[in-house]
Amino acid sequence: MSSPEIASLSWGHMKVKGCSSSYKDCKVWPGGSRAWDWRETGTNHHPGVQPADLEEVLKKGAELLIIGRGMNEALQVPPSTLDFVKQKGVDVRVFQTEKAVAEYNKMAAQGAKVGGVFHSTC
């Protein structure tokens, strides 16, 4: 399965190709996507992205994980979260969200099994 293209990104709004709904924050993986609801794991800007936020994407076959920290990079990514991903044998890259989406789409177009979590506001 291929990773779906992120078709558009603006403040508070993301569209994934092949999906009828739009997202504020989203998770994508080879073959799918869904809203990233921070309330599921108690995530907040600080301390930031938790391993539990990434489990689903990793289980769905991502071999490369892209994390978008927000338009102003307000969302933190603790070293322990990066270590968790690396221990799973998955490469992880962290960017400001516009750069994260560009990297994700570039890797998806090359056929990589890429997944990601993206915060589309601050």
Overall description:
- The chain is an alpha/beta fold and 122 residues long.
- The chain is built from 3 helices and 8 strands.
- A 5-stranded mixed sheet has the order 5-4-8-6-7, with helices on both faces. Strands 1-2-3 form a 3-stranded antiparallel sheet, with helices on one face.
- Strand 4 and strand 5 (32-35) form a beta hairpin.
- The chain is globular and about 30 Å long.
- The model has no long low-confidence stretch (mean pLDDT 96).
- It holds the Pfam family DUF498.
- This is Mth938 domain-containing protein.
- InterPro entries: AAMDC, MTH938-like_sf, NDUFAF3/AAMDC.
Can you lay out the helices and strands and say which pair or pack?
Layout (H helix, E strand, L loop, with lengths): L5 E5 L2 E4 L5 E2 L1 E5 L2 E4 L15 H9 L4 E5 L10 H9 L3 E5 L1 H13 L4 E6 L3
Parallel strand pairs: 6-7, 6-8
Antiparallel strand pairs: 1-2, 2-3, 4-5, 4-8
